[in-house]
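Suppose you are handed a protein chain with no further information: no name, no annotation, nothing but its sequence. What can you learn? This example shows the usual starting point.
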Amino acid sequence: MSQRNVLITGASGYLGGTFVDQLADASLPSHGNIFALVRTASQAQAVKKYGLDAVTFDPYDEAAVEQHILDHNISVVFWLIDALGSAAQPHFIKALSKLKQKTGQTVHFLHTSGAKIFSDLAGAYTDKPLLDDDPNLYEAVDTNNIVIDLAEAEGVRSYIFVPCIVYGKGRGFGNPVSIQTVAIVKAAREAKKVYKVDTDRPTWPVSHVDDTATLYIEILRKILAEEDIDYGSNGYYLASSGSVAWDDLYEAMAKSLAQRGIIEDSQVSFADNAALAKMAKGLGCPEDLVRVQLGGKCTFTAKHGQSIGWKSRYPADHILEAADEEVALILEHV
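A reasonable first move is to predict its three-dimensional structure. Written in structure tokens, the prediction is:
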């Protein structure tokens, strides 16, 4: 069997950059070329330093996608951009299906999603742990089904990769900061105070960026080794070492922000309408979407990664210990 060629999208992003940075030391099974989809010449030069081959095409152009998948015999695609959209993914799935027809090789598509759609914000149950290896998860959470259903119909093995609250300095040449922790800082900076948006103490899964990237590596390792792992409606993979309460994260970051004079004091209060208006301005979103970015309850629990050999290095409460470092990093870049 010919060696597998791999395509990674989003290599200049927070997760993608860290994933690419880890590839060099990953000791992966024998494989062909690893391509990175880039937009600019500078990005192309950057990925080459990591031993990757740069390709440039429009991922939303079906003909261009098919041409590059078939011309380069790419049998594995890791999708790390546009988690909420579903316009481009079908192009890659259909192109992979055509490659399978041409070569007889098993083909794989990994879609990066998000934990919000497994939370109360999207109507998921939160009265008990929602395990990522639960065989009933596909029916329980009606999301990502375009990818899963089309991939199954086209004979493509699909995987749904789910980041959560990710923190830590991103590696590689791309974005060094997260999205979720940045939102806390942006809202607080505008409101001059850290506010909570839930009346109880909801929790949310967390993961250091290095641990998150390592799960990408382990999934890729299994694919390149031709080892069967769960896919399709059983192929959800959450990168998380555990959960923390939003309130604890707010308090840890508020302490750091107050020490730096970004906010007036470190006390965390419940957001009233006036506070929500300020937070919304800082986030650049409507007031009714503030909670979507800064709260909610998610009991999604990682089990699948452990079953394929993934182990987190950082425990969940490390995010609280690292809050001051996280705030410093965010203020440096935002």
